[in-house]
Design brief:
The complex is a heterodimer.
Chain A lengths: L8 E3 L4 H10 L5 E3 L5 H6 L7 E4 L9 E3 L3 E5 L4 H6 L1 H6 L1 H7 L5 H4 L4 H6 L7 H7 L3 E6 L2 E6 L4 E3 L2 E2 L6 E8 L6 E7 L10 E10 L2 E10 L6 E2 L1 H5 L8 H14 L10 H20 L9
Parallel strand pairs in A: 1-3, 2-3
Antiparallel strand pairs in A: 4-5, 5-10, 6-7, 6-10, 8-9, 11-12, 12-13, 13-14
Chain B lengths: L5 E7 L2 E7 L5 H8 L18 E4 L2 E4 L12 E3 L12 H9 L8 H14 L5 H7 L11 H11 L10
Parallel strand pairs in B: 1-5
Antiparallel strand pairs in B: 1-2, 3-4, 3-5
Classes of the chains: A alpha+beta, B alpha+beta.
């Protein structure tokens, strides 16, 4: 432990309203901490620059999963353990349930929250590709009120987002219209547990009479943020899943991704693997196979 | 700047305990330094190795990643709470009998992760055991004897004792 616990203040207001008041009164002063699976690592290494932290752990207002006919709402404070164990998420949003099982280990999943995974802003984060292909909306809350935007518009760049200093992630809202879509998700990492993604690809699609009438594609670790692959989708949508379409999609993807070299992999490897995952995904979709291939 | 210390109440292995600590002090360090419970080990200190695994309100957590303020009011179960008097917990017996411990530094975390697994799932498959212990690293036994130990413990009477 190289960090000094006495160098950091941590408060735990009892309600969400109390937290929002503190954030509004001194915007940018407080760093929210939920499960601590990112910030406590930085703290232990002696690199935690935040002096004032505000705990979101145990706030019941952020810890809910609400299901209705049209959508499911997952509170920002819901842990990945809770996401994995939820029957409607497992049935309607299997890619999210699978991604939840990729987060570290059981002990990490019991602490790490959905909002933390998003706000931390890592391009390698596990949940975002699934959220992107499910057309998730993200609801942000502050003392000024709440606002809902497409999750696809949340990330602006590396570790940058539209989140204002007085705002928290209140919930993610997912429309319940994907249960009948064909779905694909695969993560490539160093080992099965505890590994951070080198490349991951998620997809939801509908193919009717050979024609792709809906397709959503998203990837991790191929850009400065979790990336919806809009250009690649456009190269596939309203076409038949022919070898010609698949080749065009591959070329488009290779132009669309902007991976980097880092400690976990190289840009070259990531480009190859992203293209190979797309090939695998499209060929599975064209053969009518559905479900998650990562198990 | 020096943080105001917090008054923390814990129920450790069934015993109510009070401790005063900086709120960002790790649960791991409070256990080891303030409460003398050195059975919980520090390995990586970043949530990767599982040596510091304890149960907090029945959930498995890495105690190196829990600021003590977030544990205020919680029930904490550590490896010291497994044996009752001189009677080893079935998992401890099984680790002894199957050679599931070698150097021993991962063992408390393995035991707590396995306790958590068996509390949720008294008869896990090998795959479920591998997943349940996937966040706990061992550099000596090679894992097979550890998995054997959990299988043996699951077959013993009384293993579900900690399913509380």
């Amino acid at each position: 432990m190289r960090g000094n616990p006495e160098a950091h203040e941590l408060v735990a207001p009892p309600t969400l309203a109390d937290v929002l008041v503190r954030l509004a009164d001194a915007p940018g002063t407080w760093t929210p901490i939920a499960g601590g699976t990112e910030l406590m690592v930085v703290h232990a290494a002696g690199r935690l620059s935040a002096h004032k932290l505000i705990s979101l752990c145990g706030l019941s207002e952020l810890s809910f999963i609400r299901v209705d006919q049209e959508s499911i709402s997952i509170g920002g404070g819901v842990t990945f353990g809770q996401i994995r164990r939820h029957p409607i998420i497992a049935s309607d949003f299997p890619l999210l349930a699978t991604a939840a099982g990729w987060i570290g280990s059981i002990a990490n999943q019991n602490r790490a929250t959905l909002a933390g995974n998003i706000v931390n802003g890592s391009p390698a984060a596990d949940a975002p590709p699934a959220l992107l292909v499910y057309d998730a909306e993200i609801e942000l809350i502050s003392r000024r009120g709440s606002r809902c935007i497409a999750y696809n518009d949340f990330h602006l760049g590396y570790k940058q987002s539209v989140l204002e200093p007085d705002e928290l992630v209140f919930a993610l809202h997912l429309p319940r219209r994907f249960a009948n879509h064909m779905q694909y998700l695969r993560k490539v990492g160093t080992r099965k547990a505890m590994a951070i993604t080198k490349v991951a690809l998620a997809a939801t699609a509908i193919i009717e009479g050979g024609l792709v009438t809906e397709i959503r594609l998203a990837a991790a670790s191929v850009a400065d943020r979790p990336l919806r692959l809009a250009a690649t989708e456009a190269a596939i949508l309203d076409r038949t899943m022919s070898p010609h379409t698949m080749a065009a999609a591959r070329r488009t993807l290779l132009n669309e991704v902007r991976p980097i070299d880092d400690i976990r992999s190289t840009a070259l490897y990531r480009r190859h693997v992203a293209a190979n995952l797309l090939d695998e995904c499209l060929s599975e979709l064209s053969r009518g196979l559905t479900g998650d291939l990562s198990a | 700047m020096s943080a105001t210390w917090s008054q923390i109440q814990l129920v450790i292995n069934g015993h109510a305990t009070n401790v005063e600590a900086p709120p960002m002090k790790r649960l791991l360090d409070v256990l080891r330094e303030d409460l003398g419970l050195t059975g919980t080990k520090e390995g990586c200190g970043e949530g990767e190795c599982g040596s510091c695994s304890v149960r907090m309100n029945g959930e498995l957590v890495n105690s190196c990643l829990v600021p003590i303020l977030q544990a205020n009011g919680a029930r904490i179960d550590t490896v010291e709470g497994l044996a009752i008097d001189a009677e080893l917990h079935p998992l401890q017996k099984a680790f002894l009998e199957c050679g599931g411990a070698q150097c021993g530094i991962c063992t408390p975390g393995m035991l707590m992760a396995a306790t958590h697994l068996l509390a949720r799932n008294p008869h896990p498959s090998l795959d479920e055991i591998r997943e349940g212990l996937a966040g706990n690293l061992c550099r000596c036994t090679g894992f097979v004897k550890i998995f054997d130990s959990v299988i043996a413990a699951a077959a013993m009477k009384g293993v579900a004792r900690d399913a509380r």
